[in-house]
Amino acid sequence: MLEPVILIASGDLRPAANQQCWAAQQRVEEAVTAAIRKLGREVRRGHPYDPEKKHGFIDSQKYGMEVFRAIPPEAPLVVVEAVWQYSHHVFHGLYSHRGPILTVANWSGEWPGLVGMLNLNGGLTKAGIPYSTLWSEDFTDEFFLSGLKTWLAGGRVVHDTSHVRPLKGLKLPADAERIGADLAAQLLRGKAIMGIFDEGCMGMYNAIIPDELLHATGVFKERLSQSALYAAMLQVSDADAQSVRAWLDAKGMRFITGPNHATDLTDAQILDQCKMYIAALRIADEFGCDTIGIQYQQGLKDLAPASDLVEGLLNNVYRPPVQDPQTGRVLYEGKALPHFNEVDECAGLDGLVTNRAWTELGYEPETTLHDVRYGETFNGEFVWVFEISGAVPPAHLIGGYAGTVSERQPPMYFPAGGGTVKGVCKPGEIVWSRVYVDSGVLKADLGRAKVIELPREENERRWRITTPQWPMMHAVTYGVSRDQLMARHKANHIQVAYAPGAEAANRALAAKAAMFRDLGLEVFVCGTNNGL
Predict the structure, then answer these.
(1) CATH 3.30.750.24 given to domain 169-526
(2) I want to staple 192 with a disulfide (CB 3.0 to 4.6 A). Which of 275, 277, 290, 360 is the partner?
């Protein structure tokens, strides 16, 4: 008799998130369990529902180790995710598990299960752990059932990745070769500093570049502390912080405020965010950082409002000026200070390279990352919902600052509140990319996409079924289907940057690809409409 399939679920560290999302997780687990049993296999949950905690997630690394001690090392293991999850809660067990592993997510925007699964997949890829992966709307479709049947029979689920081409087999335009080579040589010779305010946000093992791989690109980490950031916030005067708020108000940015700290965005929260913005710039300047990342989630979330408003402003070239308190010099004047959300170092390297390549090309260099959150077909095209918690530069949004609204972050994730940088990303041509580590090798995928503007009612519907406080990009990837992107993408995050037209975007992609290659990365070009 075949041994039962063991089902586990990694969750959040924050009790409120686990409790609020548990009902959705339970529905997905029931559907996956029914599908497995229909194919003739028994399913056993690897850990129970906890009536005191009011959820059934693995909610810490400590608990995860307890769970895995009772799981047979050779058992077929399914990790089911309908929510955002902290990968380190289960990574230790998956690292040493000898049986087949399948990661599964529900195709839904409600809670970011797809984001959680892609994060976990990126970590498994980095560690060289074999796994299969599947996703489905209702777990009754042929795509899911066929893959599940293959996995249950002992096979590996193989997806179509014919959209991926190694750069080494492609011929780049001469000017792209020159620009990429020059910029890579400058970085390797002159070096750059990546400021990291506490490493390893929310267990994102996939977001940490090992030092020896990063050093080979000419980039070195300055390990900073969020406690130092908080201490620096305390040294910022109310008057200086208020000047940042006044600047934003004057540019037409709207803040949706209220009186209740627990549920509303308050003026006091915004003032603290302005202090964090000033403090971050001053620390970055002091240490000579070329890019910075703030972890925020653990520790700082209990002391200060969200960092997302800060991150979005830093990613914008045109933003409130901040002076050195001793000399009066404007810090990073006329420049963005690329910020990588959730201290995702892969996005940090990508953002730094993008900033330099776009600046050299004379394009607007604002860049950011989004979560690969969801997507649906609209008028015959599959349109992705790229959505992040607020680190988008206003230059990416329709109307710029005047089209930007700041709303309070959801209390279940952000107990201390804080506002977002919310808006709809403007239509245009973009280059998307992802730097990642695969079994000890630093790699990069690049592709092209168009951002489209959807009707207002469709835009509002997509916000309602995801997170309405967050900025959103409606993207159509060229030559890369929904399932191809999911199969290939090795992270929850995707980097994006605009170009002033399709031809310009192709030129930027080629120059960036050349720069990555000359920095020592293994580069792949994905999809079509890229000029290569």
Answers:
(1) no
(2) 290
Domain boundaries, the chain: 5-152, 169-526
Cα 264 to chain center, whole Å?
25
Q: What is the mean pLDDT of the chain?
A: 97
Number of residues assigned to the chain: 532
184-193 pLDDT tens trace? 999 999 999 9
CATH number given to 5-152: 3.40.50.10940
DSSP letters spanning 214-244: HHTTTEEEEEE-HHHHHHHHHTS-HHHHHHH
- How large is the average pLDDT for residues 355-381? 98
How far is residue 282's CA from residue 304's CA, in Å, rounded to a whole number? 18
Identify the three-state secondary structure at position 103.
strand
Q: In what order do the strands lie in the sheet with 132-136?
A: 43-45, 5-8, 77-81, 101-106, 132-136
pLDDT at 426: 98
pLDDT at 270: 98
Q: Do domains 5-152 and 169-526 have the same CATH topology?
A: no
> Burial level of 8, CB count in 10 A (0-12/13-18/19+)?
buried
Which amino acid type is present at position 262?
Answer: A
